[in-house]
Design a protein that fits this description.
Elements (H helix, E strand, L loop, with lengths): L11 H12 L4 H16 L3 H49 L4 H18 L3 H28 L1 H4 L18 H16 L1 H7 L3 H22 L4 H21 L2 H6 L18 H49 L1
Length: 321
Amino acid sequence: MRTADAPPPPTEEEIQQLVELMRDSWYPSDLVCQGMDWLHHASGLSHGLTVVSATLFVRFLLAPLFVNAQRNSSRMAHMKPEMDVLKTRVDAMAKGVPDPATQARVQAQMKALFAKYDCNPLKSLLLPVIQLPLFISFFFGLQKMPELFGSELSTGGMLWFTDLTVSDPYVALPVLSAMTFLATIEVTKAQTLAATPNPKQGQMMINFMRGMGVVMVPLTMNFPGVIFVYWVTNNTFSLVQTIVLQQPDFRKSLGIWEPPKPVPGQKEAKGMVETLQDMVSRKSDSKTKDNELERIKNLNAEVDRRKAAQGGRKRKGRKKQ
């Protein structure tokens, strides 16, 4: 039942105008709507299966980028000890006057190091730069579809969620989405800890992701079912992909190296709490030193003032004599 303050539902004419505007738009979210509508009519699949098919198609296209990012990250992890030595040299040069010859030699060594391990930090950024806009475009595009194609989506679901324009009355889809997300986190736990220089920070990151997966259930439970069809499919693909890429023989065939063993004698990196405490301590020490210098400066100024005053009194005494 619609309340008095709620806006009236759009008429058929208004919906048709929105559809025409969407089809003439080049916004990423509108392109998602156009692609879903075209695939639905071209394949004859229901809207639910259309979303599943489109999601799997996009993820298969992105799979080579994911493999390349994994290969690059594994090699950078092995390169890190040598890179730390070069960074020490760079920091030492930054403190003094840069020597052009030394600077050129260090840059050449860094370039040779990347070539030796066949990796580049920018390669690891390529996947999120592409994947994040796609994820956002799919989310906003699918969020608009119940308004644009409400009559078709209302019967385009499957199993217990036949109406994709409304939220799941059993909250099963939000829970399933969270479970597949959490399962992916648990499967990649060891890999995340190995890739993080500080195990404590890696554990904090994992716990944060766990909490986010749980909190997302009550926050998203009122979203239309069509969005969860995308999320569950996307999360399931990520889970299966991660499990497959954890197989040693398969990783080896793709050139993905196993995590490096800890360097003997290497000090354990400090956790986030310890790092913040050190920053506060250094700031406090710096403030104490500044206060001490200011106190000495004021004391010297007071001594100079007294000497000047004493010298003035002596000169006056001589004049009287």
